[in-house]
């Protein structure tokens, strides 16, 4: 019996692999049409001041409704990167986010934080795309933050720095995303000179299993370089309190709000503002 089971395994594996390859192929084909079919939309998640809880920025998070199925960005962003679609999709998100933010009458001073893939950043056209988004939306550049994940910096250090310099020359701010999860060295952090460091939620949510030491070390480094800090993935009051004790500047997580469509964001902020007014 054991032998039989063993023999059947490779076939099952091949079948599963075939199915999943087909699935990926379907997704990639679907993604190609997603912009035209208006299946992509942007949600916004508040990043609030640790002390006052006032929104400081809103992170743009892309959503894909693939014929009724919501596909996780952790799946479709890598697909878009592999297929080169990330250039069109990324430009679309950037433009959409700048236009939305320029019309946020509820939060005229808050910024919008847009995720930029390293593949987009390395593109010679990226700065042109950035300029166009700023010009079309008339968003003050100080109100735009670009979030770049730290992984892969090592391979492209010179080019990354040149692109970041061009971004900073426009008064757009740069955040390093998922800090601590990649391979970047501390000296890179210093030379690249980020405005904001985002502490990955894996450290926040495993604070008692080593996360605390990493957050403290990150805070020390960020303070040395004059960067601001955001802690991601805050789900409980206790987590928020501990981040406050460690001196984190801003917080983001389901404790405050999940990512929302632009209309729901307005309602959320207006409700928040009315609460603040009624307390005073
Ligand atoms: P990220 O930039 O680190 O974004 C934060 C992720 O954490 C988001 O997942 C958000 O929904 C989730 N999150 C926020 N608060 C909490 C919390 O309290 N608990 C938990 N469990 N999760 C929380 P999401 O929206 O699924 O996005 C996943 C990743 O996909 C993003 O990670 C980002 O790397 C990428 N991504 C999303 N939109 C874009 C985009 O427009 N362009 C690019 N290049 N990447 C994007
Ligand atoms: Mg991000
Ligand atoms: Mg992150
Ligand atoms: Mg992440």
From TrEMBL:
All residue ranges annotated as the EAL domain in the record: 24-273
Highest rank taxon of the organism: Bacteria
Protein name: EAL domain-containing protein
High-level lineage: Bacteria, Pseudomonadati, Pseudomonadota, Gammaproteobacteria, Alteromonadales
